[in-house]
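Dear colleague,

As promised, here are the two records you asked about, laid out in our usual form so they can be pasted straight into your sheet.

NAME FIELD: protein one
SEQUENCE, THEN STRUCTURE:
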Amino acid sequence: MASPWIAPSILSADFARLGAEVDAVLAAGADLVHFDVMDNHYVPNLTIGPLVCEALRKHGVKAPIDVHLMVKPVDRIVPDFARAGATYISFHPEASEHVDRTIALIREQGCRPGLVFNPATPLEWLDYTLDKLDLVLLMSVNPGFGGQQFIPGVLPKIAAVRERVRALGREIRVEVDGGIKSENIAAVARAGADTFVAGSAIFGAKDYAATIRALREGIATGNAGR
């Protein structure tokens, strides 16, 4: 399994000083920067677009940028985020008219494609797409807002995705987003996740480095129990 990554979600950052916030979490030990892109159409909230991604690249952010698109339609915005400097671009299958085409578009634009599953979205989409993906993102809350409580029923779903990835034999990231904190991250790691999105748990803390250390300790505990 790939080494664990911690991905702070900038949805919970102080946008008045976003460049400094991202610099701070990366200096504190984060591995990549997570973007929650919401359109007030597919989900009931409106957040950020490619200009923010481009601004952080111009600011000097070199870390991978992990863009989670909660938008419909998807294909129109993919090239914009690719040009803006995205590394991973993931989307919800329900938001695309042609899932396979959207995956191919992300790859053609030079980014790594991912597919996102809401808590009630079945995994059968992976029957036809897993071999084309670099990331599977499992939502452990219903998308739209930060600060929600983790849904424990997602844990068996994480394990099912990990088993599919193991059987395929390709390195595909298994990411989990929603309500992740030090108290539950061990269970998420034990289920098979290797990439952990945390928003308010990190940006709401006074000491980013201590919080990220605590999250890593939880991951190590979970992996030891697998």
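NAME FIELD: protein two
SEQUENCE, THEN STRUCTURE:
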Amino acid sequence: MTGKDIVKIALNLVVVYLIGGLILAVVYAKTAPIMYRNAENAKQQALRALIPEADAITKMGDWTIHDKHAEYYVAKKGGVPIGYIIQSFGKGYSSYINTLVAVDKDFTVQKINILSHAETPGLGDEIEADSFKNQFKGKDLDHLKVLKTDTTEYIQAISGATISSRAVSEDAVKNGVSRLIKAIKEGGADSGAGKHS
């Protein structure tokens, strides 16, 4: 193989890579707005599922939890606040657990939803089960504590997944509600309180 052959092969590879890169750029430019719109629609559906009786759910502000961007919202019916939705993160066994939490005007939890996580299949991923999530309804800050024994007053840990249970209950939900209370008291429920770290 001569030097001329090596240059020819190298030029051919450069051309192939440039064409491939151009095709990827065009595809991304076409699909990025669609993916963004779909993500926004999915987020709105997730928010509405938490407080379905609300006429409007609007973003109040941003905050950072475990170095991850999160948001909080006010839910209104007839222009009057009826509750809030918090996005929060809990540090689990093998991932950060992205969680949405709906609370009423008194900051009592009404419902939670796990958006994403990478907890252990068959153990930690039980945080997605209704039997675990339904325990949160009606709990205030003082009752967002995980116990390994049978309980209805607090949150019962998932057998073999106490770390994941605590990540949701005491980290994501309890800390999220605490941050919301602080944001509302600092800025008022309708002020759109700014970024909190």
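A couple of things worth noting about protein two: The radius of gyration is 23 Å. Residues 188-197 have pLDDT under 50 and may be disordered.

Best,
R.
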